[in-house]
Amino acid sequence: MAEAARPIDVGGEGGDLPPLVASRRTRPKPRRSFGPDRLEPFVHPEHRMTRSRAFLASLFALALASFAGGLAASDTLTPAGARDFGIARLKYGGGGDWYEDRTSLVNLMHHIREKTSIPVAGDKEAIVEPGSAALFQYPFVFACGHGNMKFTSQEVENMRRYLTTGGFLWVDDDFGIEPSFRREMKRVFPDAQLVELPFSHPIFHQLYDFPHGLPKIHEHDGGPPRAFGIVWDGRLAVLFTFDTDLGDGLEDEEVHHDPQEKRDAAARMALNIVQFALTQ
Fold it and tell me: What is the pTM of this model?
């Protein structure tokens, strides 16, 4: 399996943005919220924003004022409406263990800081429910679990609105969530299908090249790792990673004692997913 890093122009030393300058007679302009313009310096030209540009621009235009208190990133959750990129975990109903992969997103956010120039808000994911208005404050939502996923009718409507207006949902199967996930996605997208993504899909060829698709992290059912997606209006709105367990590979080493090469592969694929979600 080849996972060589591909060079990317990160738009300047360390990826820092130049400070805004104001004349004596004008008030300083507020910093732009995290959106397409701030992504341009560090993404590959082939992966510029297309249909999701309008959503991300409007989403981050709703950004709240910078969170106060002078706390270090290590002390903060990703705030709703943050100007920088953040991740939210989906707290779904039905009895499934939505809270698993407990250290995975913290580690993913650390990798984003270390390996990309994407500005990250906080160091721990937020938690959102599928029927909440807060869902729309996060462009990237993650879900996992072994058991049952169940949405109410109102949650189905809210999830559909979120996903059809530019939101992105990544669901990583911990072994057991697939039947209920497929059932609920059919309620959210009754006219769309979960389709298997080919190895040529750009999600496998972002910061790192995965010519054979998803890496295999943990053995579940004896089959190969597979990636499925729901495409809406030409944009990948839902990603389902199956029989791979990227979330386990992202956990702290002492959780599963995975070898370093497995943990590296999981981190690299997760970085590809984040970049693709933000630039498709």
Answer: 0.74
